[in-house]
Amino acid sequence: MPSRITDYTKYFSDLAKSIKASDVRELLKIVEQGGVISFAGGLPDPRTFPKKEISEIAVEVIEKYGDKALQYAPTKGVRFFIETVKEFSERHGVKVNPDDDVIVTTGSQQALYLVARTFLNPGDYIVTEEPTYLGMLSALQGLGVNFITVPIDEDGMRTDILEERLREAKSQGIKPKMIYTIPTSHNPGGTTLPMDRRKHLMELAEEYDLIVFEDDPYGFITFEERDVKPLKTLDESGRVVYTSTISKILSPGMRVGWVIAHKDIVAKIELVKQGVDLHTPSFTQYIAAEAMKKGIIDERIPFIKQLYREKRDAMIGALQDYMPEGVRWTRPIGGMFIWVWLPEDINSREMLTIAIRKGVAYVPGDAFYPRGGGHNTMRLNFSYPSIEEIREGVKRIAESIKEYRESKKS
Ligand SMILES: *Cc1c(COP(=O)(O)O)cnc(C)c1O
Known about the structure:
alpha/beta; Aspartate Aminotransferase, domain 1; binds pyridoxal-5'-phosphate; 45% helix; Aspartate Aminotransferase, domain 2; eight-stranded mixed sheet; globular; 15% strand; single chain
């Protein structure tokens, strides 16, 4: 009788071995067992899902397009969706050039994965905000890329520091290839880059010949007016690769995202995608296209904005009421997250154990720093918890700070 294999490590590839489960994720498993108010997740409020409308559309899609919607589709995506999303983007201020094309991806997450593989070689340099999106960090795992990081303030990326970093890199003979940025309603930063910084960023991209990878899941649901345009719209030379998704405006479970970029770039991404999943599910592309076309998404947007504005206000109010001296936070005008800077003496990762014991969870900010740092920061999600939970949870974090400090004294 052959004996059962007890350890598979020796069979795994170097790539698989290099990818580590995050210890935070392990900690947060406890949270899912209940009794803990979680600011750690990144889920939309399910009240934003137009369930009745989607169920009607699903039936209609089967009746009207069943043979196509249930069939294999082209890698680039279902034409009906591509045409509809172009219209939708233009209507919402995202410029689509005549020589641009669209590829549908299985969520924006896949766009991050595919674009990284389309452009980056091992040893290449990528510029990101610090903190940056965890999904991008995981998409880059195993690629062997180097990071140049640029800190954020309350307004997002410090483009003056970006300029310094690019100059330094050049003087060392380093030529970064790409800048990855979330200019509107940053995750995790909760910041929105003002127009002058956007222009500065684009000038620098021009000067240093960088591809600009713009991740824009929240641009359609900013809940306070700002005079900002997507980088894609400011782009004159065709160097912006833009991605967005229906995840925050319709449903993340449908897994439909897209990339808009010059057609030569899209053609290359298409080849990379082919080997990953052939194509994004045709069925959900048809449903998403109908929801856009019928105006279901546009009708829903004001409700999403109002809901998230109220929740943001509740969280800001609670932070003001409960946080001790020396704590700072961003004031998002969109998205789902607030970024908090705690005083230097607090290590948010160490403090998490106390917080979970007190019944609240968050993501320690250092998880979002590609090159380390950020020990005194944290990301708070406000889209998913209820307003009551938001107040109570923030109060519990403030209590955790107190207890953490007492534990350090003794
Ligand atoms: C939510 C989010 C996405 C969307 O990911 P999907 O794969 O489309 O669900 C992408 N980027 C950022 C920064 C996000 O916050």
